[in-house]
Amino acid sequence: MKQAGRHRAGPPPDPAGGSSTSEDIEAGLLGQWRSMRPREVSAKASVSLTSARKLWHALGFPKAGDEDTVFTDADLTALRSVATLVREGALDEPTALAITRAFARTTEDLAAWQTQLVTESIGERASSPDLRVVPEPVTARAAARKLADLADDLEPLLVYAWRRHLAAAVSRMLSDSEMAQPYSGVVRCVGFADLVAFTDLVRHFSERQLAQMVQRFDTLASDVVTAHGGRVIKTVGAEVLFVAMGPGPAAATGLDLVRAMAGDDLLPDVRVGMASGHVVSRLGDVFGTTVNRASRLTALARPGTVLVDDSLAASLRRVSGFEMSPMRRRTQRRIGPVTSWTLSRAHPAGRRGMMGVDGARDDGSVADDDGEIRGVWSMSELSSPTRPLVTITRHGPGGHIAELALDRPEAMNAVSTQMARDLSTACEELSADLGVRVVLVTSTSPKAFCVGADLKERHAFTDADLMAQRPVARAAYSGVLNLPMPTIAVVEGFALGGGLEIALSCDLIIAGSGAVVGLPEVSVGVIPGGGGTQLLTRRIGWSRASGMIFTARRMPAAEAAALGVVDEVLEAGTALERGLQLAAQIAANSPVGLRQAKRAMRLGSDVDLATGLEVEDGCWRATAFSSDRAEGVAAFAEKRPARWSAVAAEDGSTMRS
Question: Taking the domain 390-586, which CATH number applies?
């Protein structure tokens, strides 16, 4: 019997001519009626009955009796697949069962979630909307048939989503392996967002209203967290646990969570607590003192506020756009003394990092409005030991154009360890700022865009030093590459080695006629390690990239343009002017459209055409249901310039500026 779905034969009709039964729906979804007992399926799979039962149990299904007819060909295929993996040595049995258990737990929650969503959708569209927590039989039967009908369409999406998340998990693992301390876990920014007074609401709201509130909270929280590149670890009732990869995105996430909930009529205020430090990641969850510290800070936070711990506050000193004021030092049970900081966005004229507040006393302590002393700080805590080697300047109406300038002219912007850190931090800040529509990467040196790695610094490195610097350098280059908005490199003078790799990490490269580019790494005993071997090959093709990399030669701007290494060549000294013109032209367009277009191009460039079109469709859907699409259509109809009043989130949703 064929499986159910819009493109296949559906479940068999009920013999009495009535509605399909649950058995009919199950048979349609699985493709066959239950036809085998436990011993039959284990014999056909050539595995012991014990092994078959272990798999069945790992899948989360109840134990079947010896004479129970509960298995289908689908069960037989699954059993054979796992058995083959074990027999061929690809996985040992405990690992195979653990992976099976992971599939089972995840898909069980997924199936229940999707069943509820479809049921609620059908109930709300009915002439007499079904507002009960448990649907009426007619609604339940309609939802069951709908789910069976959609199975074929949803199955490829499930596999695609799993592969994408698997790729992301593997990427995080590889990155963590280079940076983590073997016995203390990886460093993460961890946060909790908690709905205020939810317990009181439980006593006054119906179960249906509570369900709607929790679902709305989960949706908004997930949108905000993923928009800043983070991950929602889990949602438990009125609380969300999330992680972020850097201090800038973490801070923006916490503040945007507060803002998003405050702007929703259905939800009460939220309070957020965040901490930075080592965590242990296991089975998709995170554990450790850092998580406990974030949880305790959430309990201390006032409604509509964000508290961060000392570690995260220290990391935010070099990230512009945020202010922090210290709270009173407290001793937390099983954690010890903790100083928390109230986080807010900086005022336009404010400084970056730790900020004093009204009520500062002579001894440096800070008082609340009610007189409570909230901690002590000194000016030495506010200063950085060295000046930033990367700066950010805003241009144009609304500051939607950001100029990220490499600012080490005395060394022609040679990338030292500090400069790599500053570049990574600046990219985190820009990625977290949803108001930025386009980024220009420039140089303050008239002689060079960037001459690559600081070889004078590296000359003094031991092998251990070089390995320690590697993840810092990779984070800098990937920071530019992963900026979610369009990027333009403005190249005047030399762009060599890592300097050209920074430019190649941008979407467009504009060069002055005096520019000289090249990847000379093989001449000093290494290879391009900031993405050059991959990005240049994708930009100009294998043979041309081979010629540049293998010969280590430098080439003038005109030749680079002929090969496609750079996109435009202007009179020397005018590249920045052209870059700003192009940036203004780009920034005039939809912020949602710009990010989603780049996302579609980036994710779809290295997959087959069919997968690429699916990626494009997903990004199109993200724009089609945004407020930008409505404004764009209205502006076209009214023959006026569009007035984009929103900033763009990664998923295509919009957040009011």
Answer: 3.90.226.10
Reply yes or no on whether 559 is catalytic: no
CA 59 to chain centre: 29
pLDDT given at position 511: 95
The domain covering 183-382 belongs, at the CATH homologous superfamily level, to Nucleotide cyclase, GGDEF domain (3.30.70.1230)
Each domain of the chain, given as residue ranges in start order, spans 22-166, 183-382, 390-586, 590-656
Residues contacting 543, CB < 8 A, separation 6+: none
Q: Which of 151, 260, 294, 453 is catalytic?
A: 453
521 labelled catalytic: yes
Tokens of 444: 């303050």
Question: Of residues 501, 512, 579, 583, which has the active-site annotation?
Answer: 501
Q: Of 229, 452, 498, 532, which one is the catalytic site residue? A: 498
CA distance linking residue 491 with residue 500, whole number of Å? 9
Catalytic residue among 26, 120, 521, 631: 521
Q: Residue 19 pLDDT more than 90?
A: no
Question: Band of the pLDDT at 211, cuts 50, 70, 90?
Answer: confident
What average pLDDT does the structure give for the chain? 79
Q: Is 410 a catalytic residue?
A: no
Q: How far apart are CA 147 and CA 4, in angstroms?
A: 9
pTM over the 0.85 mark: no
Residue 362 has pLDDT above 50, yes or no: no
